[in-house]
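Incident review: delayed structure delivery

Summary: a single-chain prediction request sat in the queue longer than the usual turnaround. Root cause was a stuck worker, restarted by the on-call engineer. No data loss occurred. The affected request and its eventual output are reproduced below so the record is complete for anyone auditing the incident later.

Affected input:
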Amino acid sequence: MAQQQITIHNKRVCAFYQTNPFISFEDVNIFMVDLLEKMLQNSEPSLDQSLAVKLLEQMAKGQTETTQSHQNIHTLFLDKMAEFKKDYNKELTLILSSNNTETLGPLIRQYNLSLEDKIKLWMHETIPKTNDSLYKDISASLKELYQSIQKDTKTLLDSSLDKKILEEFVHSIDNKFAKSLVSSQTFLNTMITSTEQRISKSIVDSLKSVEKTITVTQIEQTALQQNVTELLRKLENSSSKGKISENLLQHVLHNAYPSAQIDSVGTTKETGDFILSRQGKNTILFENKNYERNVGQEEVKKFIRDIEVQECSGILCAQHYGISNKENYQIDIHNGHILVYLHKVEYDPDKIKVAVDIIDHFQSTMDDLDCGNEIVQMEKKTLDDINKEYQQFIQSKQTQMKLIKEYNQKLISQLDDWKLPQLEHLLLKFFSTTAAKENICEFCQYIAKNPRALVAHKRGCVEKKKIAINSIQIES
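Output delivered after worker restart:
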């Protein structure tokens, strides 16, 4: 697999990782990716207790690593300075043992400069650049050491080189090294204590923030639960259920007839629930019933009364059950108006459209039979036969519509199975676009049948969990 990289341009992030090289950039990002994935997959966007505990554990681990790193720097500094001191004394003893007094001064000065360069180089490599305060404090302490050594060296070279003076010089250098070590150790201890206090305060503040977030989340969840409970309680009320059902039906009517005028008249007496008005078509009254039982005869009588008052055709919709003494799609003619009764509508726009088409068709037929007369005579048997025939037509139409929908779904499903994964995988290597490119897992090259299958695969992709960032470029 090709090498993957992440480039960081944010100065604050770069400075943090430069200051704390012991903290793994990769481990931090893996932890955050796991954290975000769990939060995004969670149906409730809340911070749970286990997540908070894990976050605090990670912060505590970071505190321990930071403290350990500073302690390591402290120990390393003391050991290295002791090593510099030992080497200096050894080299100084060797130089002083030389009988050539002419070269004694230049050799000591040269070695003093060499010691200063070694210490500066080591500090530059060991102490983080961003810890400016510590670097300056230790540098100032060591500068005093350099100046004191140079001063003692000058005094030594200006005096007679007897044994006592040489011993005093070596003893003085030893004391100055010890004093410098004590001073530097104080600075290091102060840095460690200060760092631990800052991290401890940060963890305490984070803990308080997490506890506050959990409390707020619990309050919000309690409020949400109360709202849901209140909604369910309202739904138990018949008037609320009826209003919700009317809103659903109104939405269906607006979508089914976008150019029609649909008036909600449920609050007006003897008007039904909705009036559907279309240009060049009959006005149709809709009566909606959202009962947990069959619609009774009293409701049918009220529906007929509303038809008489409004003088228009109408449709009585029983959303979940049937209608007493009325067949599904039964057609009645009352005072020249067409009445259609629908069972188990379930807000299906196709069923409503069929009922509206029935009224439009019957009204057109009645207008043709009218021929200018107010009275149309027809034998009852003929009308019953027409009604029966139309009922069979409606039933057949619904059956065919259902079969067509099922067949279309099966056909689409079968077409989705038409895949050439190996060919698609090969073409991806040579061409920038193929039909299935977006359905390939970028971690393991798995080819999914569709986007939904790809999402499901990524949730459990083994390679995704194993992949680590191979190269990180940090630019300040």
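Verification: The beta strands are 5-8, 261-264, 274-277, 284-289, 313-318, 330-334, 337-342, 471-474.
Action items: add queue-age alerting; document worker restart procedure.
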